[in-house]
Amino acid sequence: MSHIAAPVLSALPADWRNALLLGRVDLGDGPTPILVSRGEVFDMSRVAPTVSALVAGGTFDTAAGQSLGTFESLDLSAAVDAPARLLSPIDLQCVKAAGVTFAVSAIERVIEERARGDASKAVEVRGRLEARIGGSVRSVVPGSAEAAALKAALIEDGMWSQYLEVAIGPDAEIFTKSPTLSTVGWGGPIGIRSDSTWNNPEPEVVLLVDADGAIVGATLGNDVNLRDFEGRSALLLSKAKDNNASCSIGPFIRLFDDGFSLDDVRASDVTLKIEGEDGYVLDGHSSMREISRDPTDLVTQAMSEHHYPDGFVLFLGTLFAPTKDRDEPGRGFTHKMGDVVTISNPKLGALVNRVTTSRDAPAWTLGIGGLMANLARRNLLDA
């Protein structure tokens, strides 16, 4: 069984009855945007046929939607053949990600680069690098005069890296993680390339941003990463990041209101648990308090001179860097098939997925054309 059998109710935020949650479900006829408010679920498809259109409308008035009853009565599942299936909470938004936004992730990326994607060399490189720059990278403000001075010193020592450039330089790393409509939701399988031997999850907070650049809510995400591919060459980033089922988001987007704001995002801790069928357990965490760049700065850099008519989501990066050995001493962590990955936060809920290969994960088949055809059949495009 590739999907997660646990009830979706267990994945909701601790205070979900006081939260306004935005998501998508398939009730048998196709993707449907929903709002969850005070424990009740509302079909919003007659107000706006897509999540992107609902966000563009600027208001989230459940009175305009159709009640589907209580959340408990809907009995959502992640199974493909379920009568009520929970989907990834986004649809037409672009999927962007910020990389190397924490000091530890910067160090780990340099390690991958210096080890040329060979996990067995990582311990030696890690020790030398942390001894030289660990404290400096953690304390320096990106783009500052101190950052420029550190860069000059590291260049002189022959230790500069393109990853340190985006970690402490003026420009953040912003890349496209996944095609529109390809993301996996809560409970679905996540994919690792079948030819990868060194990889890991990346637990992150994900912001939902409208077409004007306003941040309207947040959720959780797994920016699945292939360390061996990116370590061989940064030019392999797309192969390391963008694969079938390699991006999960959910379970719901929590919209900003009087009880949840961007300051909650800034103060959030994200926990991670990996449970393997071999009995291996790894626990980790990522604290947004330690991010090097403020979320608003990352959104501004993602906007740049772009235009996102359907808005976008932005992965904010992760502090988590798995180094606990799984099998051979010195080889650190890598996924095995069947691993269950749980990413959680009290205000955002829990995103749970099981690992398989990108080859064996369900194919991504519903593209933009297919979605438009489905909405037309349901007479929703006039909404």
UniProtKB/TrEMBL annotation:
A Pfam family this chain is assigned to: FAA_hydrolase
Keyword Transmembrane helix: no
Endpoints of the signal sequence: none
Biological processes per GO annotation: small molecule metabolic process
UniProt keyword annotation of Metal-binding present: yes
Gene Ontology molecular functions: catalytic activity; metal ion binding
Keywords in alphabetical order: Metal-binding
SUPFAM superfamilies cross-referenced by the UniProt entry: FAH (SSF56529)
The family this protein is said to belong to: Belongs to the FAH family.
PANTHER family the record matches: 2-DEHYDRO-3-DEOXY-D-ARABINONATE DEHYDRATASE, FUMARYLACETOACETATE HYDROLASE DOMAIN-CONTAINING PROTEIN 2A-RELATED
Name of the protein in its database record: 2-dehydro-3-deoxy-D-xylonate dehydratase
